[in-house]
Design brief:
heterodimer; A: Rossmann fold; six-stranded mixed beta sheet; four-stranded antiparallel beta sheet; about 25% strand; B: mainly alpha; 2 domains
Chain lengths: ~240, ~400
């Protein structure tokens, strides 16, 4: 469970996150909102790239904001990026193994853990293949494998389906749905694809202009008038 | 049940294991080492062997650049200054102590490593142009200091100085007892440099190598992977400075009495240029850089009687050519080019405009160098042809 209380982020004059309080109970949770709502900023606060002006984040009893940024991965925080960032110079195996060797888990279990993660995401590419030679879909899956290898506690997925065709988005949805039971991790999924979010997440929180405007069971939340307005409003502008 | 288990195993993707390319690579490396250690000393004269000693030393310095830029993505334009510090430390240690040579190598490496890390500290917050500027200015500063204290200055002890330094009577950095002759010392240097390369390779193949690759790709992603970026960057500076310090000690014993003029700041620029031409992402590129930095000037000056300063123009054009058409450098591109040329000659692929200009670009470089060497009375002809190379290379782009 992740409990966020009174979280505020300020950059000179802009407030991308404004007094946000929300609870992610467990399983797979959605985090949605129009562009610029503060979703990626929230992920960056969790990762430690941004220091909030106020607020606290309790994750499984740990005060996350007190941990130095690079220690959060060892604690069990994993993430993928909006712009996929698998490491081109390394092989698929090394890409995933690298996360494992910084996670504080023993060397003995590494090979099996890495292969299990590669199997889990359904990656067909050879483990020895260089990531630089892979296609967009396979790189996405490498990133997801990196996010789940070993014993993750929290997995942040930032628009993992962006740019993927429908069929591959469905495959990805199947993978995301299984992360909580397979690895026991809490998943927070940010995506604009509502069908992906509703098929993966029992609970969803909605941000708009840095404020939390709704949270609860996904099907209910998506029916709220304020949520519909926030989204339709954004659609109109585009 | 056994069958089911076997099936499950067969269905699993295979782990990366030792395969043919790796065996081939090991054979090539072993073959090169045999040639370098036994064939060269047996067949080449004294000047050549001294030149190849320098090639090995400068290749090791370039290997430091492969670590810093090729792996971590930090541009350092001050590596020759680090080499100068290594030479200085080795020389002063010789004045102050009577350490056996292998110990002198290690102590010099360790002290240079500490100094390199100190210089690297401000670099942690800088990148790109600013880092390049800072390291270049640090290199200039080192040269100023060395000139000011009239390096090597024969004062007693490690820090001592005298107001009347004289080159005569200075204690020279001694070579190891069983490697006093040029041939024997050359072999010694090749072995030590090979060990330094091995040290770097071990880093690349393990945790720090993967961490550096992650930092180069994206610092946020590296942080999210749990990598302590500060520590890993300092580690890279430490490794590069250590091997460069060892190279400096080898250089000190090669020339006996080094002086300030052995380390012009512009050499740091030539070093990164030649490393980029050779291919800065692999250690092969470092060897090419060593050859370009030391063997080519020797060939130009001592063998062909041509002013080696023309090489600066050749390096410049070669760098442009490589950056435009082969960012992986010669060691990466040359095999591909040869394969493409073979296919062209066998008429398996049609000759496109791009390919034609690509070939013209490489030919211009080769023909230009040949013209510079042969037409001594009118070197400008060769230079003009060399300059055509990057022009053709830009025309070969899509």
């Amino acid at each position: 469970m992740i409990e966020v209380k009174g979280l505020t982020v300020r950059f000179s004059g802009v407030t991308p996150i404004d007094d946000m309080s929300v609870t992610f109970p467990g399983g797979a949770c959605g985090l949605i909102g129009p562009n610029g709502a503060g979703k990626t900023t929230f992920f960056n606060v969790l990762s430690g790239f941004i220091k909030p002006a106020a607020g606290s984040i309790q994750a499984f009893g740990e005060d996350l904001l007190k941990l130095p940024d690079f220690r959060r991965a060892r604690w069990g925080l994993r993430r993928t990026f909006q712009m996929e960032q698998a490491i081109e110079q390394l092989s698929v195996f090394d890409n995933v193994a690298m996360i494992h060797e910084h996670s504080g888990e023993g060397r003995g279990a590494r090979r099996d853990a890495v292969m299990a993660a590669i199997d889990f995401v359904g990656l067909e590419a050879a483990p020895g293949a260089r990531v630089g030679g892979l296609g967009a879909r396979e790189r996405r899956l490498v990133e997801v494998a990196r996010a789940v290898v070993g014993q993750p506690k929290v997995v942040l997925l930032d628009e993992p389906a962006a740019g993927l065709p429908d069929q591959e988005t469905q495959h990805l949805a199947g993978v995301i749905r299984q992360i909580p039971e397979q690895f026991g991790a809490l998943v927070i999924l940010v995506d604009h694809d509502m069908s992906l979010v509703s098929s993966c997440c029992e609970n969803t929180a909605v941000l708009d202009f840095g404020r939390l405007i709704a949270s609860g069971p996904t099907a209910e939340v998506l029916r709220y008038e304020s949520v519909v307005n926030a989204y339709l409003g954004a659609e109109d502008e585009q | 049940m056994g069958a089911a288990h076997a099936q499950e195993r067969a269905g699993r993707p295979r782990l990366p294991s030792i395969n043919r390319p790796i065996i081939a690579r090991v054979l090539v490396i072993a073959g090169l080492l045999v040639v370098a250690l036994f064939v060269f000393p047996a067949t080449l004269g004294g000047d050549w062997i001294n030149t190849f000693t320098s090639v090995a030393i400068y290749s090791t310095v370039a290997a430091g650049l492969v670590v810093l830029y090729g792996r971590v993505g930090m541009i350092s334009l001050g590596q020759i200054a680090i080499l100068a510090i290594g030479t200085w430390v080795a020389t002063r240690l010789t004045f102050a102590t009577n350490l056996p040579f292998p110990v002198l190598l290690l102590v010099t490496g360790a002290i240079t490593c500490a100094i390199g890390v100190l210089i690297g500290l401000p670099a942690l917050r800088l990148s790109g142009l600013y880092l390049a500027l800072i390291t270049l200015m640090a290199a200039g500063a080192v040269n100023v200091v060395l000139a000011q204290i009239q390096f090597p200055n024969g004062g007693g002890g490690f820090t001592g100085r005298t107001d009347q330094p004289s080159a005569i009577g200075l204690k020279a950095v001694p070579r190891p007892k069983w490697a006093l002759g040029d041939n024997a010392y050359y072999r010694y240097v090749v072995v030590v440099c090979a060990l330094m390369f091995l040290l770097v390779l071990l880093h690349f193949a393990s945790k720090p190598g993967r961490g550096w690759a992650a930092i180069r790709e994206s610092e946020p992603a590296a942080l999210a992977a749990g990598i302590n970026i500060t520590l890993y960057k300092l580690w890279a500076f430490a490794l590069a400075s250590f091997i460069t310090g060892v190279a400096g000690c080898l250089l000190a014993a090669q020339i006996g009495q080094p002086n300030t003029y052995s380390f012009p700041t512009s050499d740091s620029l030539s070093l990164i240029a030649t490393a980029l031409i050779g291919g800065i992402f692999t250690l092969w590129g470092a060897i090419v850089a060593g050859v370009f930095m030391q063997l080519l000037p020797f060939l130009f000056q001592a063998q062909w009687g041509v002013n080696p300063n023309f090489l600066l123009i050749v390096f410049g054009c070669g760098l442009l050519q490589v950056l435009l058409s082969a960012p992986g450098g010669l060691t990466n591109q040359f095999p591909k080019d040869m394969a493409n040329l073979g296919r062209l000659i066998a008429r398996k692929v049609p000759l496109t405009r791009q390919a034609a200009f690509g070939i013209a670009s490489i030919l211009a470089l080769i023909v230009g160098i040949v013209l510079i060497i042969t037409l001594k009375s009118a070197p400008i002809v060769g230079i003009i042809v060399v300059v055509l190379s990057p022009v053709f290379a830009s025309l070969s782009q899509d």
